[in-house]
Design a protein that fits this description.
single chain, alpha/beta, 271 residues, 40% helix, seven-stranded mixed β-sheet, disordered N terminus
């Protein structure tokens, strides 16, 4: 049996990741959840049951864990941030939490039926994390990736063009500082395919609507990694501009496409 652990953030190479997740309350307040029916569908597809044990890897404040605990027998939440896990533990005392990273998962070999990763795989070191995921999966276990793709509608958000003009130079500045954003250049996809550890993934997409108030929206923007990395005074100024932009707008409607991808490790006779 092999259990690995590593100190908080030591495996995070991109400074945007560490900066973006240093305010768990803002993250939890602003970030969207996920459609329950889509999670129920993938749980059924993979034949997970009330006896199944799953890992929510890079669980954050538990946006995904909240749904998984209703659908499977045991959820273990692993994240490199103590502060994030503290928020998760307040909400889900029945969920086991472990401090750790994708590159050093603090679980035993073959100990989970599925590994779920929501909105985080692009931050991992692909090769190290992939081998760790294979290690902790039981026979016939699966890796499930969950993504929220913004599909914001200008009919819902008439100020969106102005918002984009405010955000674009800030995103460009973060790329000059830290390089291309890993969830835009998608290099993790080619890296994962090159490892040949997993089967070709299957996927489906569903629509999801996130409704939130003005201050919730400001919290959402503040949680974006390329905003959180800004110097404190600049970040404060940007968030003030965002707050003014949506002032008096009432509840906001943010539309997303939720994509769920799943795969399993290749068996020895398939490599």
């Amino acid at each position: 049996m092999r259990v690995k652990a590593r100190n908080e953030w030591t495996a995070i190479a991109d400074p945007r990741a560490a900066s973006g997740f240093n305010d768990p309350r803002a993250y939890d307040r602003g970030r969207p959840s996920f459609p329950r029916h889509a999670l129920a569908r993938i749980v059924s597809e993979l034949e997970l049951e009330k006896t199944s044990r799953v890992l929510d890897l890079a669980a954050g404040t538990g946006k995904l864990s909240c749904l998984l605990v209703e659908l499977v027998g045991e959820v273990v939440a692993v994240d490199p941030s103590r502060a994030m896990l503290a928020v998760l533990a307040e909400r889900l005392p029945e969920c086991k939490t472990r401090l750790g990273t994708a590159e050093a998962i603090p679980l035993a070999d073959g100990s989970v039926d599925a590994v779920f990763v929501a909105e985080a795989f692009h931050w991992f070191r692909t090769a190290e994390a992939s081998h760790e995921i294979v290690r902790v999966l039981r026979s016939n276990g699966h890796l499930v990736l969950v993504w929220q793709r913004p599909n914001w509608d200008r009919a819902d958000l008439p100020w969106l063009d102005e918002f984009d003009r405010l955000m674009e130079p800030l995103f460009a500045a973060s790329e000059r500082l830290a390089g291309p954003h890993p969830n835009l250049d998608k290099r993790w996809k080619s890296e994962l395919a090159a490892l040949e550890l997993f089967d070709r993934p299957s996927s489906f997409e569903v629509d999801f609507v996130h409704r939130l108030g003005r201050e919730d929206f400001v919290a959402l923007v503040s949680s974006w990694s390329w905003i959180a990395i800004l110097p404190a005074e600049q970040r404060k100024s940007v968030l003030t501009s965002v707050r003014e932009l949506v002032a008096g707008r009432g509840p906001l409607t943010l539309r997303y496409r939720t994509e769920i991808q799943w795969t399993r490790p290749r068996r020895p006779d398939e490599s």
